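Friendly challenge for the regulars: who can give me the structure tokens for this chain first? No prize, just bragging rights.
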Amino acid sequence: MHATSTTRARIETGGDGVAAHVGLHALGRFGDALGLGAALSARIVPAGERFPLHDRGKVLVHAMLTLAGGGEACSDVEYLRAQPALFGPVPSDSTLYRTYRQIDAVTLAGLWDAIADVRSKVWARVDTGEPVVLDIDASLVEIHSEHKDGTGPTYKGGFGFHPMFCFADNTGETLAALLRPGNAAANSSADHLGVLDHAIGQLPAEIAAGHHVGDDPAMVTRPVMVRADSAGATRKFVWGCRARNVGFGVVARKNASIHAAISRIHLDDDHWTPAITQTGDERPRAAVCEVTDLVDLSHWPEGTRLVVRREPLHPGAQQSLFPSLAYRYWGHYTDQAGDPVTLDQQIRAHAHVEDHIRRLKDSGLERFPFVDLHANRARLAIVAFAADLVRWFQLDCLDGPLANAEPKRLRWQLWHTPARLVRTARQHVVRILDDWPTADALTRAYQRVALIT
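First reply, four minutes later:
Bragging rights claimed.
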């Protein structure tokens, strides 16, 4: 029996013929197969009199691989640079820094357009044809410096940014990311509609048809719905959704009308139907009731409904729509068809945004290294692009638990897979370490990348 966790060895430098990030190489090959680097490069106008040594689209892809691998600072790209056999000529950290600084508002808009083109290719491969559900939410990012442009104090007493996002619930992609100061209003209808328009612009053209402002409803070929928390429960936002032929589901805020409606039915169990979980099982002691006919919704779009859920009080429960010592009351407005129980289940799935934001924060969102606002906006976009590249890879190339794994698990099990490099027949052969647990999954991923045309 051994009581030590390592073996005794002599450590020295000068090694070669090994690779430490084979999974990131697979991710990069996937991006190359999609034409990601070329698409981004076409949107960046070279600066200066000489053509740059490193293609700027390739520089941004290397930045995405660095973020996927857990890097945060520009200097972390050097760990890819140490492996030219896998990643080719990788830019220095100063080149990456200058590239971020070069991305102005016009260039950034072009990069988002390039990502939309690549996204269409991915959706053509993985889209299931289901209605598109979008989720909008904002999150605070602490910045420990008052010298960065665009920052501000937050409502939680901190300081930094308050970015707003729109995600595709079907795939987990980040379709829009708006960098805002820390004191930006959570319930800004202009910001909500802005990220919604940006997200619609990221959808494949055939899906986005009919969902732009003023479009004829007859143009719609795929239903699109957007969900938001109570910050989105403004009439300007929901009327904006109606103008875009987009369905909505927004969490209700406490008001006298809702209070009066619940007071009329809270003791009548005949009005309540048992609620269900996301898997379809009955939720213990939770129930749902539609109170549309008990409130005045004349100022809301035609067809708006109000659905209320009650559930047992629990420690840390948020503010209730109705005072009670036994239940917490929560509700939402929606213009969707269906029974109240199904609608309640649907709006509760808005909680997926917490998973999406957590993934972003674990992949570079909490680090804004620049003073200039435009550079930090570019940084936010690259963080979103990197997260989408990983999601595309998971959807198209992975199976089982890895297809929905969190960033930490992907790094530990896949991205940092070690291997031996062998040179034969004028090409490099990557031999994954014997007994590596995810070797088969990584090999299959390479095979699927090879089939992309």
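The two ends are 53 Å apart (CA to CA). The first strand starts at residue 18 and ends at 19. Your move, everyone else.
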